[in-house]
Design goal:
This protein has about 100 residues and is α+β, with helices and mostly antiparallel strands. The chain contains three helices and six strands, in the order αβαβαββββ. The strands form two sheets. A four-stranded antiparallel β-sheet has the order 1-2-6-3. The protein has a two-stranded antiparallel sheet with strand order 4-5. A hairpin with a 2-residue loop joins strand 4 and strand 5.
Amino acid sequence: MRVQEILRRPLITEKSTELRDDRNIIAFVVDSRANKIEVRRAVEAQFQGVKVAEVRIVNMHGKVRRQGRFVGRRPDWKKAYVRLAEGQIDLFDNV
């Protein structure tokens, strides 16, 4: 798997914003086949000069949705919490 395919997008929520400010943890939506080692390599390759201290991965189940009598389901997805090493820059300061 290529580095560009592993990180889908940053996850910007209220919880992830608090984690980023308090604990230097950034949340990403990642490919469902990716593991911790691949996520670490992808973050360090995508953002030069960043050292990853820890990676935690969570499998999220898609929600069941209905529209009238039709029932559907959103796809399952995976998210990764990446803790940067002490003294590292914030990746999304300029956003």
